[in-house]
Request: fold
Amino acid sequence: MSQYCNSYDTLISDIGGVLFTSKDGQTTNVDAHMFRQIIGTQSWYNLDTGKISNNEAYSLIAKQFSLCEGDIRDAIQNAVDGLICSREMFNLIAYLKPGRKIYAMSNMPSSIWEVVERTGGALWNMFDGIFISGTVGGRKPDFAFYHHILHETGAIPKHTLLVDDIRDNIVTGRCLGSGFTCILYDTFANVHQALRNLCGDPISRASEFLTSNAKRHHSCASASQIIHENICQAVPATYTGGH
Reply:
């Protein structure tokens, strides 16, 4: 039996772009390029951290971009309506949950989090804590938000995994103290493989692979031509007790 002991006892995941993804919604008067500009404004940052209300933020943003407040509201509502719960990511986190603490950390106004929380429902029960910028009063990639989570959870950076879809947030995580081990979310397949590699027992996984692929361990030539011989079948069988 493997005596492997995993060093990662904490996993922190982003929400938007990781646990929830976006789908194309109805067309509004705010195109995708302008929407990205809007959520990059100081007014949006202030809304993100609970410093101003939705109405105040929409009014300031409308003036900045010479738009109607209704256009801003429609664009935000359209984005919220387009959020889709990533069941496969939640399932992966549930698989990784035994033996470690799981937290969520996200830049999100409190009003949007209320919708996301309802949508996720009981799926949030597996999390040991959820930190939203709208309630914490800080946002990524500011160091203060990360320090707040470390203080509240007692997590140790070198034993912590961070999954996020924004490079700036990843950079801050890597620069924090001894540094989080960070995974940039690009595709679920890549994140799934990275987390399984980091959290799994490599000896048990290797044994499982050899056993499940018994009699299929073939040699291949440079042109991917399979060479049928007995050595590659016999060696794994020797160590797995197969035939």
Notes: The chain has a mean pLDDT of 89.
